[in-house]
Structure formats: C-alpha cells, structure tokens
Write a structure and sequence with these properties.
Radius of gyration: 22 Å
Distance between the termini: 14 Å
Bound molecules: adenosine-5'-diphosphate
Order of helices and strands: EEEEEHEEHHEHHHEEEHHHHHEHHHEEH
Strand content: 15-25%
Shape: globular
Helix content: 25-40%
Largest sheet: 8 strands, mixed
Oligomer: single chain
Number of helices: 15
Structural class: alpha/beta
Length: about 425
Amino acid sequence: MNILVINTGSSSLKYQLFNMETETILAKGNCERIGIDGHVKHTPTNGKPSLSEDVPMPSHSEAINIVINTLTSETYGVIDSLKEIHAVGHRVVHGGKKFSQSVLIDQAVIDALVECVRLAPLHVPANLMGINACQKAFPTAPHVAVFDTAFHLTMPDHAYIYSIPYEYYSDHDIRRYGFHGTSHRYVSAKATEFLGGNAEGLKIITCHLGNGASLAAIKDGKSVDTTMGATPLEGLPMGTRSGTVDPSLIPMISDAEGGLSIGDTLDILNKKSGVLGISGTSSDFRDIMNTAEFHLYEPENEDESAEDIETSERARLALDTFEYNVAKFIGSYIVALGGVDAIIFTAGVGENSPAIRKGICDWLKGFGIFVDDEKNGHAGGDGISDITSAGSSAIVLTIPTNEELVIARDTMALVKG
Ligand code: ADP
C-alpha cells in the first residue's frame, strides 16, 4: 500500500509518498509560494534526479496537480499512475475538543473542521484547502485527518483550564489544547518500547525541540500536560516565538511601537521573538550556536570589536534562556507526574545538539538526573541513543521523531479498518 502524506500551510504544501510494506519514502517534496508565484521541490528516492523549479501555482488545487504530475512523470516520477496512491493522510493542526484520534474524512468531519477554524484561523483553513484539493484529485481514495492536538486531549481539566472566567471555556472552548501531538505520541511510544514495552506507571517527559518547541508530560502512555496552549505561542521560547510571557506585554509593546494593533503586536511575539528576538541575529539554533561560540573560542582575538562581543553574548543569552526554560518546564512536569522515569529529546535541536542537551540537563542535577558527556556527544542518527550517566535517577534518551510516518501509519490503520 502506498500512502501520500500531505501537510498544507497557507502558501505551502509538503508531501511524502510512503511504501507502507517497507515503511520507506518513495519521494518527498514541497510546493512553496502557492498563490504568490509558485515553486516545486521534489526528491525521489529511486535514483531519478531531484527537481527544483518555478511553476505557477495560483491555488492548492494547482499545487496538488503539480505533485501528481511530478510523482508520475517519466523523468522525476516514482509511480506509473495515480492508482498507485491508495490513500491520503492529512496533517490537521487543530481538532478542537472533538477529535481525540485520527479519523477517516467524510462530510461530517469536514463540517466539524470548519467549526475548528475559529480556534486556529491561520492553520485550519489551509488544511481544509489541502483536503479539498486532494479530494478532487483523488476522488475514490480514502482520506484521513491526523491532528496535532489529538494526543493531548487526555489532559486533566486542571491542566488544560486557564484561570480566566470559566465562560470563555464553556461557551467559546478557550482552553489549552497543545500541539506537536504526533511527535510526542511517536517518541513516547518508542521510549516505552525501549524501556520494556509496558506504559502502565511509566512517567515520561518528551522534549520536542525544533523551530517550534514543546514539552509533554506523559503518564501511562497518555499526555497529562503540555507546554503549548490555545495556540502554539505558549510555553517555551522558540525560534521566533516568545513562549509564555506576561499578557500585559501586549499593550506595553504596542505603546512602545507607537500604538500597534493587537494583531501586529502578536506578530512580534510570533515572528520576531524567541531566540531570534533575544539574539537579534537568527532564529536558527545552529547559527546562534556559531555566533555564541565565536566569542567563547576567541576571547583574545584582537580584531573582535565590541559589537562582535555583544552579538555573541546576546546569542549566548538566547541559548541560556532557551535551556533554562526547557529545564524549568521539565521541573514542573516532574511535579505533574510525581517523578520521572525518562526524559526524551527529539526534533532538530533535541536530536542534534549535544551542547543544548547538556545545557538543559545541567539544570536537572538537583533532581539527581545526569547525562554522560561521552554518550551525549555521540548521540543522534537514526536510532535511539541512551545518554544517561551511571547513577542518574531518570533515563535520558534521544529519539528521532517522524511525524509523517505516524500520519501514514494512522492512515493505513483506518483504511484497513
Ligand atoms: P521544525 O520545527 O521546522 O520542524 P526542526 O525540528 O527541523 O524544525 O528543527 C530545526 C532547528 O534545529 C533549527 O533551528 C536548526 O538550526 C536546529 N538544528 C539542526 N541541527 C542542529 C545541530 N546540530 N545543532 C543545533 N541545532 C540544530
């Protein structure tokens, strides 16, 4: 069975085509700048050449047609015809209170998703456009929706309720939902397998640290708390997002900018804050580490100007703030779980940066949690790495996440019934 996984944004459509017998990727790619001008990138895994070219894409429908033409093309293709795509799995950012697991898409599901638009007005309309375009392109194939929020619907009420007038929850569904659910579900299941396979009684903290970052507290295989909230802005500082701040900053920033609207002020918190905001140089953690280390490694460099020193000190401050906040939330989840058996690092930063993992774990020594520098330095790659130091009170692992594979697996499970 071949399954096409689709992840639609307002101006982008990412895809991966999976062969589910082998769980391997046949091709993956991305349509960018939909509705602006259009660019397609496509990478097949069968030895054919990759593609990267400008193609007009006025809407998501044109984008999906370009994906289909590319997947079946003689030069770049990996299948002979559309019939070789047996089902389509869609990443959907928000499933509200209704969807606690993945579902086969029918009209009732579409109607319920339309209801979710008010909860994620930037993301769900794009997801609906993607579903609509794919349903037209694959009218006979089953389509499945896999939700970022679903895994966290098991949170108890004391974890998801905001301490604001209750009517905002009861009448408007304003509550913490959490995101990155497919990633937290996948890596916590992998960790459970690694630790013997029995989720019962197991207390896991998963740290998804990428451009977007969130933590989840997982007990008995179920999410009991997570750092993102009603939107993905809450929680940790991220590449460009502020994470949790005093809400009074909104009028304060607005005033400082001479009377910015709420929307534009929120844009500052979403797009110009986080490690980008503090460092003033980049939202990319690798860039920031390079900038921070430049000063550390060359303190005697006579050519280094005061400006260079300040730039690297601000990069270091951005990293310190990130690491401190991750550790602080881990501490709060040790409270939420009544202890912790395993801490899992995943996603771009979590999987690939020994220095940031160490920076975070150094804060956890008071809990008796220690990582082994040698193992930490060599962790990463395709498999699970155990970076725990002897005598640590909790196991610390790095596990590569694979959200697209979760979507493909859920799709196959629902299609097979
Ligand atoms: P997204 O949220 O876009 O899926 P990813 O999970 O791919 O993000 O993570 C991207 C982030 O991971 C970038 O900031 C990148 O710099 C960072 N990253 C990747 N490799 C490393 C590394 N070796 N050291 C530090 N950061 C890294």
